[in-house]
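so the lab meeting is tmrw and i was supposed to have these ready like two days ago... anyway. pasting both below. for each one the top line is the aa sequence and the line under it is the structure tokens. i havent really looked at them closely yet so no promises
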Amino acid sequence: MKTKLKPGSSPQDWKKGLLALNHFWKAGYMPDDMERHFFLTWFALSEGRILQAVQAMQLHRNTFQNYLSKFRLARQTIRLRRLWQNLDDGKGAKTFGTRMGAYYKKTTPKPALTPEQNKALIGLWKTGIPSKMLMPHYVLWAIRAGKSREWIRKKLDFSNRHLIRVLSRVAQPKSKDHFWLSPLKPKATELYLPRYQTRLKKRKLA
């Protein structure tokens, strides 16, 4: 099945959301830290209905439950649903973004989000980007930030082979990783070591 944006999502929001993630990586947060906002957003968009949420995220229900356990939210879905449904400031209807910002703040200790960051991330998630793309995004950010491959491996607890696989997927124009990060225009020449540049030219990737 061809990888594509969800209907109604905006290419502008796609890029804005990817750029917003850079702030959190620079601040020292990791991909796991941002997954919580991803799952809470889809939980809220589905009005707390788990089956609807897992369908929207294209996950197995058990995987969704595993993530709730990871975030220490297991057996709290009813509370989370009621909190979302009852969230109100007495001033009438809220936009989803404002309501989601309050919801996230009530359920998540960190990282704190500005209204602009919250809106940008919501726009990104609504494109249909999988949460597993947070890690390749982190790797691309680290490379562009001048971090060494050793630094990246230690941060992510990767073997050298695993890191090479991630870099290769981001660099390949036909891969899902490359598609989801395409607004950032990842290039093979920045992801491969200099000794591979001749090979890249032969494959017309340089």
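ok protien two:
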Amino acid sequence: MNTFICCDKCGKKLLQRKPNGIFVFRFGKNNQSGEPVVDIEIHGSLRIKCFRKNCGHVNLINYFP
């Protein structure tokens, strides 16, 4: 079951986490195909800034629970 990782401060969805622990980041949409412009799979811990304009909180997400 995939779960979503949300911003600690505002609750906006940032990433999706697969059952095997890999983070999936998808952003934007291509007008022709409807697929995301950015589609990244991340294996490891990361630091990501919230996308919401009035938030900007830096979230630290550990690969190991």
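from a quick look at the 2nd one: The mean pLDDT is 91. Strands lie at 3-6, 13-17, 23-27, 38-42, 46-49, 58-61. will dig more after coffe
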